[in-house]
Amino acid sequence: MKKLIRSLELILILAILSSGCTPASTSPAPATVPPASSTPEATEPSSAAPTQTATSAPSLPILPHNTIDPSTLTGKLMMGYQGWFSCPGDGTNMYNGYYHWIHDGYPSLNAESFRVDMFPDTRELTDDEKCPTALTLPDGSPAYVYTSANYKTILRHFQWMSEYGIDGVFLQRFGSQLAYPETRDFQNELTLKVRGASETYGRAWAVMYDVTGSNEKGNNVVTLLERDWKYLVDSQKILESPQYLHHNGLPVVAIWGLGFDDRPGTAAEAMQLLDFFQNNPDPKYRAIVLGGVPIFWRTLEAPARKDSAWKDFYCALDIISPWTVGVAASDAEVDNYYRNTVRADMARAKECGAEFMPVVYPGTAFHNTNPSLPFNQQPRRGGRLYWRQIYNAVSLGAPMIYNAMFDEVDEATAMYKLAETTADVPTGVELITMDTDGECLPSDWYLRLAGEATKMLRGEVPLTDTIPIAIPEPSDPGACRQTARIQLKIATSSDWTTVRLGGIQFKNALIASASAEATQTSADLNESLLVLTQTLDRANAGKSVEMIVDLFPTDLGGSPLT
Question: 33-42, 479-488, 550-559: which has the minimum mean pLDDT?
Fold first, then answer.
């Protein structure tokens, strides 16, 4: 490997991005929400988290809204909705009380037990929506979370969807939860609440089964899902909801996880499930099937199962939606994935007679659940990672988009309102905030972006590869953290290029943009040593690559850059 740098052009731009909190005037005004009629007003939340049934009278005033046409998926951006959070005293009896907020086996929510990587913005929540914790904010005030058992909070989420122009959600329904009475009851109540909120705010909704754990307690993925779908159709009568999502004249049901090498289900069982939904002798159970499949479903590479029989299953799906969370961190990686994988995926789906629904996400991390993984593993870059995926999906003609996820703070893919600065998150816990990457963003920034993405998908605004809306001016320029982003512009024809930067420790190296020849170039960091690698064949041919590399320092102390 040649270590000689044949050509290196280096332009260094150091931008200290000052930040601040969102001025109150930049976000849509939150609704004035009275306390639930069954809960007396209080200056502090009670020690137990109140809950409401889906049949309770709405406790939020209904704001003006449009109603999404649920008769087609075409032209829609749909988000995944987990709704899996609980609190002690909310009536759910879910495990340790703080389901999904804390690690299993801990009796309370504190800094040691907390397991999510982002923190919700709870400022709009009323006292009867707040769950007390043992955590405090930096100013000493209590830190609160919420429970998905509270219908008012579910209504609030769908109110946000309506305000920001988000079409609707796929409600996650886990096989592992259907196997146990307490979690199954929780899921059933949640389904009623999501239905009610969707109808109240005119959003589309549909069920998405996640087959994870569907073989627990002696269950079988086929019998479990067939039995549950019949329950939803016959007992909950979900298909009578005027906002239940349909496509090509049939209700839509999504099944996520079949074909993954770490999930239950054989290819034969997967085909049996498809036959149940697509060819059921009783028409009332028939549905369009959307498959949430492994990213390399077409080539049967990991994490896909390698049995060739799975190809028949994928080709028999009505809609194919590969799971891509974590696939790319930089614009160049996003472009490369869409150019080399998605284009071929869409062509194969067309050959099969299926439609294609790409998955987009804002960024991801799983550090507090698994501390061996890095903090802020795939930075959001102020929304640029998300927007690059949207741009590529729309450019290739995707008819519909799945957005991971509305409320998943666990893996830091949440799109709803999030804590803006370290002043808004509990002390003692390492959490990603809206200003982590050095840009002062309002808590609703990703809801705003999703609304713009929906317009671009439908052709209501011009196609653009840059975020089309401006970040609001901060009301307090000193409130957000001071973070430097260093940008290197590099041109080289060497297959192995190093740049040493002194005085700063870095945490990420992202190729933000690159020439077409640089599609297989990688950037790695070893403290202050940046290493760029391109393929040897291209270097031998004398082809030069040009790119811009973003670096995010963790420590601005020390000597000047060298």
Answer: 33-42
